[in-house]
Amino acid sequence: MHYAIITYGSRCDVQPYIALALGLMARGHEVTLLAPENFKNFVEGYGVTFYPLHGNLEELIYSPEVLSMLKSGNMVSLLRYMQRAGRKIQSQVNQGMIAGCLNADIMIASVLSIIWVHSIAEKLNKKWGILQLSLPSTPTKEFPFSGLAFFNFPAYNIFTHRLVRFLYWQFNKKDLNRFRKSLGLTIARKSLLDLISKENILNLWCISPQLVANPKDWNSNSGITGFLTLPAKKRVIHPMDQIPPGLKEWLQNGEKPVYIGFGSIPIPDTDLFCKILNEIIIQTQFRIILCKGWSDIPGLITHPDLFVVKFINHEWLFPQCKTAVIHGGAGTTAAVIKAKISAIVVSVFADQPWWGKIIEDKNLGIHIPFKKLTAQKLLKAIEISQTPEMRKSVSETGEKINNEDGLKIALDAIENYFD
């Protein structure tokens, strides 16, 4: 079989699908991975056939408009801006998906492409399925939609999922039907998300069942598999993963450090963050390794207990740290738990507060929304993260997750469904 895997987003939205591609290739399948054009070298470095999709989400996220909205804390405006920006390039992305999937037998869609891939599969008469990395949005009575987790009881939980699906359809139906018309397809009168559920399309969520149990009321072809992890023996050293000069020596010459990094998300308020970080470095004995990514942090002090990197390989570094202060993205959260260290989730938006709540509920760390972050709260969180109870919980859960084989479960489910 020839699989076309379609994803869009930042590195954490691409890397797990490389693991999936390698798994399918090892079972004798042909794979083409469609992703934003800036990931060409990353994907092809693993020997996976790459097809570029228009755009670069990471450049968009670091635009002056987004940085301004992040600093103001206006998440509603941010989401609207991102949706408008997405609309501007959706047509070009759609054309790329069509071209990249022409020779494939089966299409695998990520969360941002579901309704578009559904229509493309209909036009091309292709089989297709869904594989998502976070945010379980398939309706269930067992938990609410992540962004509306204010309560947790069956009627409310179902309501939140249905509400989000309704709003999503209202926002996208005009553009989608314009696209369907261009393909010569009939107009969709009802939500395609509801139709997909009724059709019982394969819908896999690649997160650990240790963190989210598989709901009993999901369709037979929906399920939670476990995280998708790149096999170590096939891991390619990406330029962003190079170990900076002096870091190994710095790690060896003192106690384990606290890692701080926000992944591909810009730091919302660099002035506030810098003030907090400087205060912690001056007032404590903590050693800190800061992964600043693309963020510019003016005013950061130079100190022997602070090591600053632009990018770093999480799988290599995290086991050498005592705790990790992160934004709470699915990929980074998984890497922290697998390293058997606690996570302090300083959430900004999207699924990050949801992951923060899960981490706290499972006694694997602490959740602090960025807008509530202070030096005192962060210091208290670091203190709690080192308690024997939390360290024991993290070690046990990390061991269980490391013994899972989410990739095999996902591959078996895919082959069984499309056989």
Could you please describe the fold and organization of this structure?
With 419 residues, the chain is α/β, with parallel strands linked by helices. It has 2 domains: 2-227 and 404-418, Glycogen Phosphorylase B (Rossmann fold, 3-Layer(aba) Sandwich), CATH 3.40.50.2000; 233-402, Glycogen Phosphorylase B (Rossmann fold). It is 45% helix and 13% strand. The chain has 16 helices and 13 strands. It has helices at 15-26, 40-44, 57-61, 64-72, 75-101, 114-124, 154-182, 192-198, 247-252, 270-283, 314-317, 330-338, 352-361, 375-385, 388-402, 406-418, and strands at 2-6, 30-36, 49-53, 106-109, 127-132, 203-205, 222-224, 258-261, 288-291, 306-309, 323-326, 342-345, 365-367. The strands form 2 sheets. It has a 7-stranded parallel sheet with strand order 3-2-1-4-5-6-7, with helices on both faces. α1 (15-26) packs across α16 and α4 (64-72) packs across α5 (75-101). The relative contact order is 0.11. The mean pLDDT is 91.
Strand tally: 13
Cross-sheet strand order for the largest sheet: 3-2-1-4-5-6-7
Biggest β-sheet, characterized? 7 strands, parallel
Structural class: alpha/beta
Rg on CA atoms, Å: 21 Å
Integer average pLDDT: 91
